Design the sequence.
């Protein structure tokens, strides 16, 4: 099979190797779609250096079951499946795991002493059976790959106060922002105000049902725009989805109403500076939203899939590009340069 190995920065090499064999409790599947996540770009851009060179990655994925390990039941060869990212598994025995919050397990991503991760940029991968979900026939492989993004939105909204009937703001216009906006509308948000740096992505957000109001930060002051839309009050909740190296948490605080909440989904690679006087004066809560797991005993991946099946989510406008495994360097280059490419979510299809 073909698989991609990452050596740091822009050094990505596609090689041939043996198809993996599923161990006890594991499922072998043929990867059909794998999304290029923004977190995959941090090392590509040189912002986060890894020591485990080379490595494999690709955690937004879907496929076809190709083999079952010992003790696996309830699945059949050829079934279409969505995969919950393996780097989110917990140890299963600590207090956080017992409470269903396996995404914050101190040993997250390690099972039986072995580091686990998804390898979506491969033609085949194996996954623990508990992270495999059979897909309804009308859910495409691309849509299933984006359930990971939608589940991040589900988790963020679960963590904040009820947004039904409330105006909210989203900083960012990438896949996480657009999927979050759709989940917010499905959760009853009144107005979703989305702030992006590119007119094209903001327009897509509005057309896709991810936002009611789009703001391009190069053309209008984002804080003033949110205040105008909300009658001077500010957003009940502001979700920050960009991360990286920009100073965006302070901006989120400034556009949030008194007593409101700032929810940070973006992964920052540079320290943030926040004015504590303004945040205290307005009594604004700043909280972090890290991936997803379960909420009230229901897996948030399943909640996101249910919203998709019910027709509340619109995936097609978010997926903008497709590349084969041999073109993975182009897939990353296009994702990295969204201003020129117009990319929102790029999908790698290992068999094309």
Sequence:
């Amino acid at each position: 099979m073909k698989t991609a190995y990452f050596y740091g920065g822009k050094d990505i090499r596609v090689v041939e190797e043996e198809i993996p064999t599923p161990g006890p409790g594991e499922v072998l599947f043929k990867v059909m779609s794998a999304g290029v996540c923004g977190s995959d770009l941090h090392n590509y851009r040189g912002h986060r250096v890894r020591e485990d060179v080379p490595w494999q990655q690709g955690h937004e994925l879907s496929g076809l079951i190709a083999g079952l390990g010992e003790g696996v039941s309830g699945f059949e060869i050829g079934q279409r499946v969505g995969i919950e990212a393996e780097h989110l598994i917990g140890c299963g025995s600590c207090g956080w795991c017992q409470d269903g919050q396996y995404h914050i397990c101190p040993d997250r991503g390690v099972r039986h002493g072995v580091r686990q991760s998804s390898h979506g940029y491969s033609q085949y991968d194996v996954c623990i059976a508990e992270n495999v979900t059979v897909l309804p026939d009308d859910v495409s492989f691309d849509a299933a790959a984006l359930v990971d993004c939608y589940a991040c939105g589900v988790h963020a909204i679960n963590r904040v106060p009820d947004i039904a009937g409330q105006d909210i703001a989203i900083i960012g216009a990438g896949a996480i922002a657009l999927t979050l906006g759709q989940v917010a509308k499905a959760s009853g948000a009144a107005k979703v105000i989305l702030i992006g740096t590119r007119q094209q992505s903001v327009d897509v957000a509005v057309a896709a049902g991810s936002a009611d109001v789009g703001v391009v930060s190069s053309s209008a002051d984002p804080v003033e725009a949110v205040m105008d839309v909300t009658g001077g009050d500010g957003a009940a909740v502001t979700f920050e989805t960009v991360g990286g190296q920009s100073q965006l948490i302070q901006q989120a605080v400034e556009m949030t109403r008194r007593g409101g909440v700032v929810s940070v989904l973006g992964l920052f690679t540079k320290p943030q500076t926040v004015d504590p006087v303004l945040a205290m004066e307005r009594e604004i809560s700043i909280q972090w939203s890290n991936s997803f797991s379960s909420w009230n005993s229901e897996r948030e991946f399943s909640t996101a899939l249910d919203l998709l099946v019910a027709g509340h989510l619109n995936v097609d406008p978010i997926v903008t590009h497709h590349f084969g495994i041999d073109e993975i360097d182009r897939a990353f280059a296009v994702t990295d340069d969204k201003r020129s490419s117009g990319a929102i979510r790029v999908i790698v299809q290992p068999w094309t």
